[in-house]
Design a protein that fits this description.
Belongs to the Iojap/RsfS family. This is Ribosomal silencing factor RsfS. The protein is an alpha+beta fold. It is about 40% helix and about 25% strand. The chain has one domain (about 1-119): 2-Layer Sandwich (Beta Polymerase, domain 2). The protein has a six-stranded mixed β-sheet. A hairpin with a 3-residue loop joins strand 4 and strand 5 (about 90-95).
């Protein structure tokens, strides 16, 4: 498995560890000019959970893949936290923000994969 796919897997594990919901991956590798190779989109129920999901992704990616994000934005309000790993962008939303921005449909010509929620 290549390094980027391994990072995506590690990010998903970090999100599932803190009960992230409605996780999807968007494969942008076939689009020329895309800003990254993959996007991982997820939601948490409260700003506290959104922040915990971000922390879990940070820890998981650092520990398991040896990766740190190039930047993280949105920690202050924790309604939408974006994490940039270069080849992978992570978006962690509150449900209302996710519905409003609807990133999955912006990239509907890409392969969007739903990851089952863990109970």
């Amino acid at each position: 498995m290549d390094q980027t796919k391994e990072l995506v897997k590690t990010i998903i594990e970090g999100l599932q560890e803190k009960k992230g919901k409605n996780i999807v991956t968007v494969d942008l590798t076939q689009l020329s000019g895309a800003v990254c190779q993959y996007m991982v989109i997820c939601e948490g129920n409260t700003p506290t959970q959104v922040s915990a999901l971000s922390d879990s992704v940070w820890d998981s990616a650092r520990r398991k893949a040896g990766e740190k994000p190039l930047s993280v934005d949105g920690n202050q309000s924790a309604q939408w936290i974006g994490m940039d790993y270069g080849t992978v962008l992570v978006h962690i939303f509150l449900p209302e923000q996710r519905e409003f921005y609807n990133l999955e449909t912006l990239w509907s010509d890409s392969k969007v994969t739903q990851i089952p929620d863990l109970d």
